[in-house]
Amino acid sequence: MDMLWNGWGDPAKAAPLPDSVTGLLRDLLGVKPRSTPALALDDLDLPAPTAGPAALAALAEAVGGAEHVRTDAESRIRHTRGKSTPDLLRIRTGDLSDVPQAVVLPATHDEVLAVLRVCADHALAAVPFGGGTSVVGGLAPERGAFVALDLRRMDALLDLDPVSRTAVLQPGLRAPAAEALLAEQGFTLGHFPQSFEWASIGGFAAARSSGQASAGYGRFDEMVLGLTLATPEGTVETGRAPRSAAGPDLRQLILGSEGAFGVITSVTVRVRPLPETKVYEGWRFASFEAGAAALRRLAQDGPRPTVLRLSDETETLIGLASPDKIGAGLGQSDAGCLAITGYEGTPEETAYRRERAAAVLTACGGTPLGTESGERWAHGRFSAPYLRDALLDVGAFAETLETAAFWSRVPELYAAVRTALTDTLTEAGTPPLVMCHISHVYENGASLYFTVVSAQGEDPVAHWTPAKHAANEAIGAAGGTISHHHGVGTDHRDWYVRETGELAVEALRAVKRRLDPDGLLNPGVLLPTD
Amino acid sequence: MDMLWNGWGDPAKAAPLPDSVTGLLRDLLGVKPRSTPALALDDLDLPAPTAGPAALAALAEAVGGAEHVRTDAESRIRHTRGKSTPDLLRIRTGDLSDVPQAVVLPATHDEVLAVLRVCADHALAAVPFGGGTSVVGGLAPERGAFVALDLRRMDALLDLDPVSRTAVLQPGLRAPAAEALLAEQGFTLGHFPQSFEWASIGGFAAARSSGQASAGYGRFDEMVLGLTLATPEGTVETGRAPRSAAGPDLRQLILGSEGAFGVITSVTVRVRPLPETKVYEGWRFASFEAGAAALRRLAQDGPRPTVLRLSDETETLIGLASPDKIGAGLGQSDAGCLAITGYEGTPEETAYRRERAAAVLTACGGTPLGTESGERWAHGRFSAPYLRDALLDVGAFAETLETAAFWSRVPELYAAVRTALTDTLTEAGTPPLVMCHISHVYENGASLYFTVVSAQGEDPVAHWTPAKHAANEAIGAAGGTISHHHGVGTDHRDWYVRETGELAVEALRAVKRRLDPDGLLNPGVLLPTD
Questions:
Q1: ipTM for the assembly
Q2: A508, A527 contact by CB (below 8 A)
Q3: Helix or strand or coil: residue B253?
Q4: CATH for A187
Q5: Residue B143 has pLDDT above 80, yes or no
Q6: Rounded to whole angstroms, how far apart are CA atoms A302 and A298?
Q7: B148, B168, B146: which is closest to B159 by C-alpha?
Q8: Interface of A with B in 255-274 (CB under 8 A)
Q9: Does some domain include residue B7?
Q10: pLDDT band for position A24 (cuts 50, 70, 90)
Q11: Are A237 and B473 in contact (CB under 8 A)?
């Protein structure tokens, strides 16, 4: 099934907001109903492709037939940009300036290499496309004429080694399919980002994804043991051993390369036995500060839950984690901050961790809320993007952004980003709700995930841009990284360059030039073009 | 204190082998007493430096005075090569073909940058020198005229953040000094490789070191959160957050770069509270296979000890881990395989892990040997290099090498390397003892650490080289990596290139050319020169 072209996910799962919420948005944030009706797919005015028949024929030959090169309007529109709020707002107004010339569907590593040769010959850029869930402009290259390299035909589990607990996955496998294939043999990857239902294995690797169970299973980049990369100059294969002292870790050079160095055509991952037990529960803390101190203690001294997250006061009040409860907490000034802890594993080991963690959380001032709030979180864990669609439908603006820092910088980072977003949007006449949660914890720091809801401006994308830029500046000034798990794309690129430093960026560009001398891979994504 | 110029460590700690062992070597391996007397430092014939007074004056200016540029014979000899057995054999015969022109001692990052500028101006190569403990030819560049950039003056703890549990260390800090500075504030790094007493923080990072407590504390590359790199083209700084999705992880590009990309001038590391409890104990397994299965179970399903290692039958018999017991086990055909488990942490947490791990080890067929064998291991954990000196002194040859692979490949790798070493040296007329232990474990694989003892050939280095090359070939064919924690240097470079692949190596060379366009940093180490 294809994802909704102008929103998130499965159209059948969409649900309008309850009237009470609509009223709340109107009264609290001044959200006004949209004055323009939504466009249908057929209404869109698609630019004619400039890629000629020779290029299309060569692409068809590269991928074993014309049926694997799609130039129809729907295919092209469905491969235009990703799923950030600006992406959705643009496509909803019919802006197809970033549409691909064609959608090419290779079935093998060698076909990917062949496609890249054709692209070089015909001056076409190539944009690898997995689940299409980028929220940072990762699918909108700078160069005009490009093909979307959709990897959906590369969707096999190639190998599973139960002794080493490793699996070789193709990049076009979407996460639920990967989990299903692994589950047949008793294993799981344990990677459950909010984009889980749609995102792909290759995309997880290319963008350094991190899932909601990262406290227990690690980030995706920590799960990756090997990668195969198809580049215009040939193939790179990495991963002879779990760890090595043989030079720099090339896996970590490919992870996060966002398609700019090559197309990831296979990923060797660490797998774990399917957990026998899963328990999620809620805890209440009097303040975000108190809750964060508790999370830090668990992250540093253990025992570490599998899932560990903490909403700030505003997010707890708004109850974003359970869309059906939106607004239910408003007015409860003592709601405090909701933490979710989850434990997955064997019954015995899970019980031990849960009991010990509960003692730590209690010692840190937490109050147990039982499993109901935990189960509610688990039930709604992938639903926030649907909520965003409903908010956009009623004329509200909703977007997320995220960062990470060392623990000692987290309070400053939290305050700085909140202030930047609140001040910028308030000054622009649309005072926002800014919510935040700690989404991932490490021994040495944590990530902060912000959600912003406000009224839309007249031109919603132009209205949002200064606030986003102010948040980016605040992140940099407060010592955070420009992205903890969404990636760089084109949206974060300028701040990424500042964070990384010119010389280091030049070193990465030297890698790109060696692997992609014509600059045809995702031009302008991650790295500036010449 | 300086390390012994022609051997390992503190001369005061050297001890001759007991006569019983000497007899054993003679009877078992045909070791004959050396026919040539050992050279003294004063006997060595040092090539005159070719670096002229202008270069030396400029270097002196770069580092704040002529007293920080040493050209005396002893300084130059002490910075010639590292501590592999071939290195020691060469220096013991007076081979000073790899001697530096001068030893330069910068005190700051900016002084390192200044030294690199002088090197570029005067066509001198620069070889970063930390503890001088390389065993892979990491200090023997291909280009003739070079200076040793000794980082010993950069030996401060620059910052300790007890909230984030991070510390900023200068590269010239030796591990014991680093631990002492951290201990003053209640913290430890937990990095205890065999080279602990001499190796430096910068060297750990540059060569991707891994310590004996890696099961609990992780590898050194897992401890590193940030790095500063001085290159001929300027400075690279990494590490804004524990983890990030902002592009490739540049830390992992610098880690393992072995001085070829730049000089590491500061390292931000994760630190942990000093453990209240340390317990080490021994376990006996009937076979290496059975013991390896037990280690794998702990590595994959936990609980994970802080120290976890397993000697094969031969190493257990020889008792290499406790030099004073050499030979004591010979004749005990039922010695089986000795595993060492260690637990460090709080008393309660340590007790839980120890009890649960004991249950797993028992279920896997292990027999507990108590803490005496564990304490003996801990007591002698840094002494093996002294033993090697004693063996070389009596005319034996002794060397180590190591690799890693995924668990399912470990048995094949073990057999292949043993066979390669045994066959090659036997055919050359010096049948060896080949011992092995699993030195580090991961969920998905393990490292194998081999020790070879035999009679010396007529030309000991030339005699050993074919066996070393045969082991390298066997590692590659059996799916291992050419080094798990010693690094690449010049000794492993050709096999590293084959393991990594030409295109990936070209990408790394592109990085080097961008950061070090004149190729003055460690030429030929890690990467081939043009």
A1: 0.96
A2: yes
A3: helix
A4: 3.30.465.10
A5: no
A6: 4
A7: B168
A8: 255-258, 261, 270, 272-273
A9: no
A10: confident
A11: no
Identify all chain A residues contacting B492, using CB atoms and an 8 Å cutoff: 246
**Residue B19 falls inside a structural domain:** no
The alpha carbon dihedral of A238, A243, A246, A252 has a sign of positive
Which residues in chain B touch residue A257, judged by CB atoms under 8 angstroms apart? 247-248
CATH number, position B117: 3.30.43.10
CB contact under 8 A, B245 and A270: no
Determine what percent of chain B is predicted with pLDDT higher than 90: 87
CATH of residue A348's domain is 3.30.70.3450
How many CB atoms lie under 10 A from the CB of residue A494? 14
Residues B292-304 pLDDT 10s: 999 999 999 999 9
- DSSP track, A192-235: --TTTTT-BHHHHHHTT---TTHHHH--HHHHEEEEEEEETTEE
On whether residue B161 sits in a domain, the answer given is yes
- pLDDT, residue B331, reads 43
What pLDDT, on a 0 to 100 scale, did the predictor assign at position A331? 44
pLDDT band at B333 (very low <50, low <70, confident <90, very high): low
Question: Contact B404/A511, CB-based, under 8 Å?
Answer: no
Q: What is the pLDDT of residues A335-359, one digit of tens each?
A: 899 999 999 999 999 999 999 999 9
The nearest alpha carbon in chain B to A243 belongs to B484
**Category of B256 on φ-ψ map: left (φ > 0), alpha (ψ -120 to 50) or beta:** left
Contact A243 B408 (CB under 8 A): no
Cβ pair A496:B221 closer than 8 A: no
Cβ neighbours of residue B13 under 8 Å, at least 6 residues apart?
Answer: B383, B386
Q: Among A122-136, A138-152, A221-235, B317-331, which is the least confidently predicted range?
A: B317-331
DSSP code, position A26: I
Same domain, yes or no, for B285 and B360?
yes
CATH number assigned to the domain comprising residue A394? 3.30.300.330
- A477 and chain B: CB distance < 8 Å anywhere? no
Chain A contact set for B508 (CB, 8 A): 247-248, 250
pLDDT in tens, B366-377: 999 999 999 999
Tokens matching residue B232: 């001929």
Q: A291 and A256, same structural domain? A: no
Residue A180 amino acid letter: A
Query: What pLDDT score was predicted for residue A333?
Result: 54
Q: Which residues of A314-352 are buried (b: 16+ CB within 10 A; e: fewer)?
A: bbbbbbbbbbeebbebeeeeebbbbbbbbbbbeeebbeb
Last residue of a domain, one of A273, A289, A314: A273
Residue B12 lies in a domain: no
What residues make up the domain containing A486? 384-491
Residue B326: pLDDT above 70? no
| Closest CA of chain B from A486, distance in Å | 6
Chain A residue with minimal CA distance to B165? Answer: A444
- For residue B357 the two structure tokens come to 């791990």
Q: What is the pLDDT of residues B438-463, one digit of tens each?
A: 999 999 999 999 999 999 999 999 99
- Domains in chain A, number: 3
Q: What's the half-sphere exposure (Cβ side, CA atoms, 13 Å) at B98?
A: 23
